[in-house]
Structure formats: structure tokens, C-alpha cells
Amino acid sequence: MEWCVTMPKIELHAHLNGSIRDSTLLELARELGEKGAIVFSDVEHVILKHDRALSEVFKLFDLIHVITTDHETVTRITKEVIEDFADDNVVYLELRTTPKRNDSKGMSKRSYMQAVLEGIRSVNSVEVDFSHKANADTSAHSHFVDHLCNGTRSKKIYVRLLLSIDRRETAEAAMETVELALEMRDRGVVGIDLSGNPVVGEWPTFLPALEFAKKQGLPVTLHCGEVPNPDEIHAMLDFLPSRIGHACCFEDEEWKLLKNLKIPVEICMTSNIRTETIASADVHHFADLYRSNHPLILCTDDSGIFSTSLSSEYALASSTFGLGKREMFDLAQKAIDFIFACDGVKRELKMIFATALKKLNSQH
Ligand code: 6MZ
After folding, report:
1. Which atom of ligand 1 is nearest to the CA of 302?
2. Which ligand 1 atom sits nearest the alpha carbon of residue 223?
3. Which spans in the chain are helix H?
4. What is the mean pLDDT of residues 138-163?
5. Which of 25, 99, 242, 310 fits 219 for a cystine, CB–CB 3.0-4.6 Å?
6. Does 153 score more than 60 pLDDT?
7. pLDDT tens, 297-353?
8. For 169-192, what is each residue's pLDDT tens digit?
9. Is the CB of 195 under 6 A from ligand 1?
10. Nearest of 268, 303, 274 to residue 80 by alpha carbon
11. Is the beta carbon of 15 within 6 A of some atom in ligand 1?
């Protein structure tokens, strides 16, 4: 585990409101309780419970959204979540969040995202790169920090954003999110995600907005096959998304299709096990995809809700499937190929991993 922490890592599937620290959530809930907006004793045990079925997770998100959806809190949680990932030696983070409208707080989807940007700007424990300057001096290798060291030197994290469409949204709301994402491309937004309760909403509702995103060159990732729904899985694969998340409930035919299409899969082992979408780690589809050399990325999904970290996900995969340090490092490094940020960032990440590898080799 210690080694997994020291290794540089890339996080491509993390939901902002699922990655909040328990301590922050409890503090905010207590404050709302004092104001009489919620009954704290009713929600405390809900926040602290860690094993919950998938349907219960979405009830918890409704509660979290009541607690967090105002500008100041969105800024705070964004800052903390980035600092936590940086602490875990994540060097590139694609953070996804659903832009929310909340009339009672004077919040629009745009102002929600401004609060997120404010959170990114207010990070101070680590240097943040959140929108790449073309032709930036990539020879400035010196400030790329040594990512296999124990933290005395300053750190840098690349942060990019994906805007999520919630499956409860209408076709119009989905389109509004895509338009906002396009407007924010020069402010770190690199793609679109479709997420939310998988038993809610219909694929055709989101398709026009997702097609539009694709046409505009905005990469799309889809939560796909989190519950059994072969028709939807087929339709999603036909759409040719740039990546998919989960892929838990695929049948033979869908695996075949996915492997032929070589669509990278964001794997969230702890999330899948905690929500009982997958019975246990040893039967997780990571093993089959890894053995078939299918593109995959280990991710946290909701590190706050499932009490995990990216290092823990690597440690879990390593201990369950007997993968050594070199295999773990290669897996982490391969994720570079699947990020949505530009080639300049990919080149810089390759340098970071090359430096880390040299250090690793010199230690053995
Ligand atoms: C599907 C999920 C999810 O966007 O408010 N979300 N959607 N499956 C999952 N697996 C457990 N985990 C999180 O973050 C919270 C939102 O992310 C989606 C849900 O829509 C949830 O409301 P944001 O920052």
C-alpha cells in the first residue's frame, strides 16, 4: 500500500460530490442541523455508513446535494478534493461533476461551475495546472517534481473537468450542460460524462446532447452496464464513446463487442463491491480485461462515499490478482493514453512517469 501511495497515479473517474471527506460532510450537516434545515441525528448514521446497495447510494447523493449545493460549499469541497488526490500522489485528475441549478441559492449551472473553478484556484497545498497553455515550455522539467519521493519537495497536479449529465435530466438540460462545457473548454473542461441512477432515464433522451458534444470534438464517457440492460449497453457501445465506466453487467456478446471496439474501461473495484454490483474482488472483470490486454484504468468513483483512495484501488488490484510493482506502475502509466487533455499534457505526464521509473529502478 505504501508503495502504491508513492507511485504517481492518474485518476479518470472521480465524482466531486462522491469524493468529499466524511469530516467535511459531518461538519456541514451539523451546521445545517443547527440552522434547523435538517435533523442532524437523522443523517449522521447515513453519512457514516459505508456498505450500501446501489439504490441507497443515490438516496445518499440526494442528501449530500442538500448539504453541499451552495457556491461557497462547492468551492470548499472542490479545493479539499483536489488536495486529497494530490496528497495521494495523483498527478493528473479528471474530476467530474454535475452542474446544478438551485434557484433558492441563486445558482445556475454556470455559477455552479464558477464556484468549482474558484475551488481549483484556491488550492494552495500543491501547484495546480488546470488549463494548458499551448506551446508551454515543456522543458521546464525542473518543476516537475519527483513523484517517487516522500513529499518534501513541492508537488504539482493537473486538474481537468468533465461535466456530468444526470440521468434524471431532460434532453434540454443535457444540451445546456454540453453547451456550458463547450463554453468552458478554455477553462479546463475536457469532456462530458453521463451518470446518475442507472435505472432512471432513457438513453434516447441524452443521445442528441451527446451526439452534439461528439460532433464538436468534446470526448464523452458513459456509465455503462452498471445494471443489466443489454439494449442500452448495445446502444451505448454503438455510440462509440471515448471511454466507459463500470461495465459490470455485460454478457458474452457485449464483452466481445467492447473488446473489438477497444473502448477503454474505467474500473472502480471498491465501488462495485460495496454496491454489490460485483460479488467480490476476486471475480471482478478487471482480471479478464487485464489478461486480454484491454485498455483499462483503475479509478475511485466516490472516494468519500466508499472510503477509498486511488492508492487503495491499486493495492486491492495488486493483492487480489497478484500483480507486482512493475505491473502496477505500467498500469498507472498506461492511463496517460486515455486522458481527455491535450497531447502537451500527455507528453508532460510521460516525463513525470519516466522520472519516477528511473527513481524506482535506482532503488532496486
Ligand atoms: C452512477 C454516479 C455514481 O456530480 O454531484 N454518481 N452515477 N453510478 C455511480 N456509482 C456509484 N457515483 C456518483 O457527484 C455526485 C453525482 O455523481 C453521480 C450521481 O449522479 C451523483 O448524484 P456530483 O459532483
Report:
1. 12
2. 1
3. 2-6, 22-34, 40-48, 54-68, 71-87, 109-121, 171-183, 203-215, 230-238, 252-261, 269-274, 286-291, 310-321, 325-334, 343-362
4. 61
5. 242
6. no
7. 999 999 999 999 999 999 999 999 999 999 999 999 999 999 999 999 999 999 999
8. 999 999 999 999 999 999 999 999
9. yes
10. 303
11. yes
Spatial distance between the Cα atoms of 267 and 250, rounded to a whole number of angstroms = 14
15 C-alpha vs ligand 1 centroid, how far in Å?
Answer: 6
**Residue 16 CA, closest ligand 1 atom number:** 24
| Tens digit of each residue's pLDDT (9 = 90 or more) over 62-110 | 999 999 989 999 999 999 999 999 999 999 999 999 999 999 999 999 9
Assign 4 to helix, strand or coil: helix
Cell of 321: 490478482
Q: Measuring from atom 8 of ligand 1, which residue has the nearest CA?
A: 196
**Please, what are the domains in the chain?**
2-20+68-362 (3.20.20.140), 21-67 (no CATH)
Q: Give me 157's grid cell.
A: 497536479
Residues in the chain: 364
Catalytic annotation, residues: 226
In the chain, the amino acid numbered 180 is L
